[in-house]
Amino acid sequence: MEIKPHPSKRGETLDHFEGQFVGGIGAFSEACIGGEKLQEPLEVVLFEGSKQNGFHARLGDAHHHLYEGPLTQAQVSFTLEVFETDKKGAVLNVLKKDSNSLPFSVQGDLRDFVLNTAHKLGIKGALLYIQGKSKELHIYGHKDIHKLNDQTKTFDHVSTPAEIEGWGNLSFIDGDGNKPFVHMHGTYTVWGKKKGGHYIMDEKKRLLLESANLTIWPLASLIRTKQEEDFPTWKI
User: Fold this and answer.
1) Closest C-alpha among 33, 35, 65 to residue 49
2) 71 alpha-carbon distance from chain centroid
3) C-alpha closest to that of 150 among 217, 204, 103
4) Each residue's pLDDT tens digit in the chain (236 positions)?
5) CA 235, CA 225: separation in Å to the nearest integer?
């Protein structure tokens, strides 16, 4: 099956998305999901579907409250990193069965595993999907649609086991193989409460897995570069 990155710009709406999409993560400044209108900063935990068959989303607000359902209106704020595919229906199931997919059982540090695997296999870009249980998890949301930094982020820390499911991607800053950039957004369930946000995976705050299944779909390349935001985004 064909899968290719579809970068977006600030201010774009659902009218800009022609085709079938999967694995989208990023940020919205407003949305209407499940009939509920939201005028606030939102982490896009998942964006998928098409105009023809309808869009579906999972969104996390600044308090990590999770909204999920049909998405009928939205506006991109910082970015929306989404992949276009030629398949319809339950795309996740199709992707997992695709001959290009690489399934792994993972324990320990998720970021280290992704980067080590990419280096070993010569992967220059990828779509990522994780499902399982974390040992320790750091998450952020955000409260400002114009700036994204440590002052505008809202944080949560889960030091007990949590059920997680998330999407992400691996790219390389300016195409430099020594400058990988991996990030994931997803849901996390603790004590029966399901929340959503941006998984933090860096040298200081690790995403440690008890056990999880990771699927990697390699791409020919995925380049990230400094543009008009506070952080590098996909090269358009």
Assistant:
1) 33
2) 17
3) 204
4) 789 999 898 999 999 999 999 999 999 999 999 999 999 999 999 999 999 999 999 999 999 999 999 999 999 999 999 999 987 777 888 888 888 899 999 999 999 999 999 999 999 999 999 999 999 999 999 999 999 999 999 999 999 999 999 999 999 999 998 999 999 999 999 989 999 999 999 888 999 999 999 999 999 999 999 888 888 899 86
5) 6
> Which DSSP helix (H) or strand (E) runs through 92?
helix 91-97
Max Cα-Cα span within the chain: 46
Task: Determine if the pTM surpasses 0.85.
Answer: yes
Yes or no: say if 96 and 103 are a contact pair by the CB < 8 Å rule: yes
Q: Which two tokens stand for residue 230?
A: 């506070």
What values do phi and psi take at 93, rounded to 5? -65, -40
Q: Which residues have a Cβ under 8 Å from the Cβ of 67 and sit 6 or more positions away?
A: 31, 33, 34, 36, 38, 42, 57, 58, 59, 60, 61
